[in-house]
From TrEMBL:
Belongs to the saccharopine dehydrogenase family. This is Saccharopine dehydrogenase-like oxidoreductase. InterPro entries: NAD(P)-bd_dom_sf (IPR036291), Saccharopine_DH-like_oxidrdct (IPR051276), Sacchrp_dh_NADP-bd (IPR005097). One of its GO terms (biological process) is glycolipid biosynthetic process. SUPFAM superfamilies: NAD(P)-binding Rossmann-fold domains (SSF51735). Keywords: Membrane, Transmembrane, Transmembrane helix. GO terms for cellular component: lipid droplet; mitochondrion; plasma membrane.
Length: 488
């Protein structure tokens, strides 16, 4: 039975129009109807006009995104990285629209997700998490469960990797069911493949798919944009140098990242063929062309031996620069990415491990060995257990950016660059402290600043998606700090 009433809403809501109001009792087991009413049988008040519907749940006015029960759903929350993303969302849940983020965990095993909530509540001293945060059972191998999950969330934080195996199903479900998606992928083949295959569909649906929103590649991508914005003139080239440090407990990386690297190098030929499908014209080189460094060199900039950075950063930064050049007529910045490895002892270890890796990764048997014994083949740098909390507390990273360009009034086509800038992005342990911070702040930014995103949905890099937002300020407030060191 329903009760029909005729009421007059305030002009601020519907400009004085009469609207029909229907009170109806909903199934309390279905959270899609009312996020605050689960288990209570609370009534939902729905006002319908010829222009739009205004919904109130438990007498609380919701934002336009609140037609869905959750602002954020963390998919893969019971994974090694996912558990830290859970803790970060819990820390920052007051930063959402109107001061509160409604969120849920999702994954294959309810028991494991319950355990993650219990651990997070103990680690943060928030026992209320166990009763306030909901759980959704979903599996990448079950499309219907993914669709049901995506229909309930505004943003899905996808923590399930390797993405080359498990990521596309999530992207597809998000696009088809109207949920935005943020991931922490460091695999160029997956990232570029999703842009090729889903950008148009996402644009048509108004869905934003933003990849590489973890340590790969928020610091690098936004670091280049920050350097450009702080440069007075035309910035034409940037080189970045990554260094990481650990405390007395040492440090390591969970072997999920190791597996992604193994499959990425094994399929490098597929990445080259994928890029040909874009049929991109080369971006114009503005100013002096940046020089490529050798495979191993001593960096005067950071005073240690360095190698080209083998992760997703170069791919992501170049895609951002293309977007900004083609869509916003910005001067494309040339980019080179490098990582410091330390002294001669580290060089010897790297050469030995690198030779074994390159030999074994070419063969199925070799890849199986690499996957089975990550600690042995990486000299302890990767492990199946991952780092301890004490190791995380003692670790940090520094991204130094060295930019050059032309001061205002100077013609970049004439002569060498006449100005330089040095900036720094630094923060806590990169993989499991900085990555959750970056991922969650990307989601918080998307929720709070929708009008600052690109005009259309699509598959974007972090720099393309967030160039006009306050995400750098948000990251600064959460321990990933951007600063200018020198301008000359």
């Amino acid at each position: 039975n329903s009760l029909l009433l005729y009421v007059q809403f305030s002009p601020a809501i519907l400009k004085g129009r009469n609207v029909r109001v229907k009170l109806r009792r909903v199934d309390s087991r279905d959270p899609a109807h009312c996020p605050r009413a689960r288990g209570t049988g609370t009534r939902v008040l729905t006002a319908v006009s010829s222009d739009r519907a205004v919904t109130r749940c438990s007498a609380m006015a919701l934002t336009s995104s609140a037609a869905r029960p959750y602002h954020i759903i963390i998919f893969g929350a019971s994974g090694f990285t996912g558990q830290f993303v859970v803790e970060e969302v819990a820390r920052t849940s007051a930063e959402g629209p109107r001061g509160a983020v409604r969120w849920a965990l999702a994954g294959r095993s309810r028991a494991k997700l319950d355990k993650v909530l219990e651990q997070a509540s103990e680690a943060l001293g928030k026992p209320e998490l166990k009763s306030e945060v909901d759980i959704i059972v979903a599996d990448v191998g079950e499309p219907d469960s993914l669709a049901a999950m995506c229909k309930q969330g505004v943003i899905v934080l996808n923590c399930v990797g390797p993405y080359r195996f498990y990521g596309e199903a999530v992207v597809k479900a998000c696009v088809e069911n109207g949920a935005h998606c943020i991931d922490i992928c460091g695999e160029p083949q997956f990232l570029e493949g999703m842009q090729l295959n889903y950008h148009s569909q996402a644009a048509d649906k108004g869905v934003y798919i933003v990849g590489s929103c973890g340590f790969d590649s928020i610091p690098a991508d936004l670091g280049v944009l920050y350097t450009r914005d702080q440069f007075k003139g035309t910035l034409t080239a940037v080189e970045s140098f990554l260094t990481a440090s650990t405390g007395p407990e040492g440090g390591c990386i969970h072997d999920g990242t190791w597996q992604s690297a193994i499959y990425g190098f094994a399929d490098s030929g597929k990445l080259r063929s994928l890029r040909k499908k874009f049929d991109h014209k080369p971006l114009p080189v503005v100013g002096a062309k940046i020089k490529r460094r050798s495979a191993l060199f001593f960096s005067d900039e950071i005073q240690q031996y360095s190698v080209p950075f083998m992760g997703a950063d170069p791919s992501v930064v170049k895609r951002t620069q293309r977007f900004l050049a083609e869509e916003h007529n910005k001067t494309p910045v040339q980019y080179g990415a490098y990582a410091g490895i330390g002294g001669i002892t580290s060089v010897i270890k790297l050469l030995f491990a690198g030779m074994m890796f390159w030999f074994l990764v070419k063969f199925s048997f070799g890849r199986n060995l690499l996957i089975k014994f990550p600690e042995f083949f990486s000299f302890g740098f990767f492990s199946k257990e991952g780092p301890t909390r004490k190791q995380l507390e003692g670790s940090s990273f520094r991204f130094a950016f060295f930019g050059e360009g032309y001061t205002e009034g100077q013609d970049p086509s004439q002569g060498k660059p006449n100005a330089k800038i040095r900036t720094l992005v630094q923060g806590p342990e990169p993989g499991y402290v900085a990555t959750p911070i970056a991922m969650v702040q990307a989601a918080i930014t998307m929720l709070n600043e929708p009008n600052s995103l690109p005009k259309k949905g699509g598959v974007y890099t972090p720099g393309a998606a967030f160039a006009n937002t306050t995400i750098i300020d948000r990251l600064n407030n959460h321990g990933i700090q951007f600063s200018v060191l020198e301008v000359s």
